[in-house]
Amino acid sequence: MSYVVTGATGHLGRLVVESLLAQGVPAAGITATGRRAEALAPLADRGVRTHVADYADAGALTKAFAGADVLVLVSGSEVGRRVAQHRTALEAAAAAGVTRVVYTSAPHADTTELVLAPEHRATEELVRASGLAWTIVRNNWYTENYEGVVAQARGTGEIVTSTGQGRVASATREDYAAGAAAVARGEGHEGRVLELSGDVAWSFDELAAAAAEALGRPVVHRSVSPEEHREALLAAGLDAGTAGFVVALDEGIRRGDLADATADLRTLIGRPTTPLATTLAGWAQR
Q: Are 283 and 215 in contact (CB under 8 A)?
């Protein structure tokens, strides 16, 4: 069995390749694609096949996918362009003879109001219509999304959000990558939608407490209204679009869009997901 992973120069895609290697897939059986040859070079040095291939370049993708049995389609990062990019990748996979695709989607993409969901929902429809055997892994939030927030709290002593009492069932990118690799390698996942998450849904009061423990200083969660949050972000120098996007994400958390902690990920990887406190402690030591 051979595998191709898109977005291998990004955080998640690279870790999927690392997880495939760690799970015993020979380097020669893995193809990694990305936009920059220099970023792919460390994987090439380990014997992984690499191809420079943009999501929008059908010819390069078809060439890169040739000979692979399973495509791990790591969702693109360009909001607003992802559906077209994913369509191109799926068509290239079919043309190259790939037989199965694993797509990294968003939690409850078919029903949630989360601001990031529409492109994932549309891509899931493309995946189902692709003619390929498929598995959709819906990744909840990455704990790493809050690394900057925790770093800022080192100086300010507070974490400011408009999430209210909302909770986040996050896990690390490494956890999710291990899950995607396990699905790609495993049997019996065809036609399944897996809701992957951390084992525990934490509140932002708990995030602040974990940050305080890791940083060795008091940290509090200051909960503000969406309007106050938007004004604070604008005052900090964010443009209106970015500030609105951040507030919309917090609104989704406040609604409970990221609170669903399932057993799917820990079952796939055969261990508990990485605790919030463990991740934050690692950041504090850098």
A: no
- Summarize pLDDT for 77-86 with one digit per residue, the tens: 888 889 999 9
Does residue 222 contact residue 159 with C-beta atoms inside 8 Å? yes
- Do residues 206 and 121 both lie within one domain? no
Structure token digits, residue 106: 């968003």
Closest CA to 15 of 139, 109, 166, 152: 139
Q: Mean pLDDT over all residues of the chain? A: 96
86 and 149 fall within a common domain: no
Q: Are residues 58 and 135 in the same domain?
A: yes
Neighbours of 238 (CB within 10 A): 15
Among 55, 102, 83, smallest CA distance to 196 is for 102
Using an 8 Å Cβ cutoff, are 168 and 8 in contact?
A: no
**Contact of 207 with 276, CB cutoff 8 Å:** yes
Nearest to 179 by CA among 224, 139, 144: 139
Q: What range does the domain containing 276 cover? A: 140-172+197-261+270-286
pTM of the model: 0.96
Of 132, 122, 128, 131, which Cα lies nearest the Cα of 84?
122
Q: For residue 34, what is the domain's CATH number?
A: 3.40.50.720
pLDDT in tens, 112-146: 999 999 999 999 999 999 999 999 999 999 999 99
Query: Is the same domain home to 146 and 283?
Result: yes
**Pairing relationship of beta strands 167-168 and 192-196 according to DSSP bridges:** unpaired
Start-to-end C-alpha separation, the chain: 38
Closest CA to 126 of 76, 91, 174: 91
Task: Estimate to the nearest angstrom the gap between the alpha carbon of 151 and the chain centroid.
Answer: 21
